[in-house]
Amino acid sequence: MAANTQFVTEAIVRNATLPNHGGRYSVIPHGFVIDQTRNQLSSLGIGIKNELYKINKDGQIAQGIYHLDVQNDPEMGMMFAWSNSYNKMMKFKCAVGAQVFICMNGMVAGDMASYARKHVGQTAMNDAIQNIQTQLTSANTFYTRLIEDKNMLKNISLSRKEQSSLVGRLFCDEEILTPTQTSIVKKEIHNPSFNYNCSNDSAWALYNHVTLALKESHPITYLSDHQKVHDFFVNEFGQLVTPQIMDEQLIEEVANEIEADVLGVNFL
Which bin fits 265, alpha (ψ -120 to 50), beta or left (φ > 0)? Predict the structure, then answer.
């Protein structure tokens, strides 16, 4: 079941009550992530065009999405997103991606721009800063690759049967789409809400129908859902080449964390 994903103000995110778990678990405050994201973007000379935030009812899980003032493509701008929790339901995650201007759909490219950090030990916040910085320092590389993937998908033509098969696999096999999201994709295939400057039968159009449905994703899985969808499409129609910015152990930890994501938390 899709969660309600209403956006909230920055103040609501900052004012979420910090827990005290004790032991080795270190809470990374949502406000700290907001401040460090802005600091790192400012140090790189990257402006912010828009900021969007979501939290769950008690503020224990939060997400920030930043539309950045970088536009090397007429159809897509650069995006940065993070997810953070106070209740141990997920690790801190951040990723570079893109947003499609016509519909503001998100686009995030797998391990090529993702990081997740366990909230353990005294250095958790310093590690979060370091990895926000690492992602943003390589942002142009990731963004350029997303543009290349978009152009590749535009040149792939799909029959209605092929589209149905892909959507079925995303629902049944990959377990990315929920029944509600699958219905949204079906509706968009038959009657698109937007003109994506491509054939309605292209893989890029289908990609956007799917990411439009992912706007209903729970903030816990927003990044992983988009990463999985991007990997699915690029592996299906192109060659997924992932810059290795994470060691193998961390990649395995991220994969295990995504497997353990909990979908049943109700959001505002």
Answer: beta
Which of 245, 67, 48, 37 lies closest to 129 in space, CA to CA? 37
Q: By the 8 A CB rule, do 49 and 69 touch?
A: yes
CA atoms within a 13 Å half-sphere pointing along the CA-CB vector of 30: 29
Structure tokens at 242: 């992932």
* pLDDT confidence bin for 119, thresholds 50/70/90: low
Residue 256 has what pLDDT?
44
Residue 119 CB contacts under 8 Å (≥ 6 apart), including other chains: 25, 26, 27, 28, 88, 91, 92
Provide the pLDDT confidence category of residue 12 given band limits of 50, 70 and 90: very high
Smallest CA-to-CA distance from 237 within 176, 139, 129, 158 is with 158
How many Cα neighbours within 13 Å face the side chain of 132? 27
Q: Where are the alpha helices (DSSP H) in 155-200?
A: 160-168, 179-190
Average pLDDT over all residues of the chain:
83
What's the pLDDT at 245? 39
Residue 5 has a CB neighbour count (10 Å cut-off) of 16
Nearest to 61 by CA among 221, 178, 254: 221
- Which tokens hold the place of 146? 């997303």
**Nearest by Cα to 86 from 46, 64, 124, 59:** 59
Enumerate residues 6+ apart whose C-beta is below 8 A from 8.
Answer: 53, 54, 55, 268
CB 212 within 8 A of CB 195: no
Coil, helix or strand at residue 60: coil
Nearest to residue 100, comparing CAs of 212, 179, 251? Answer: 212
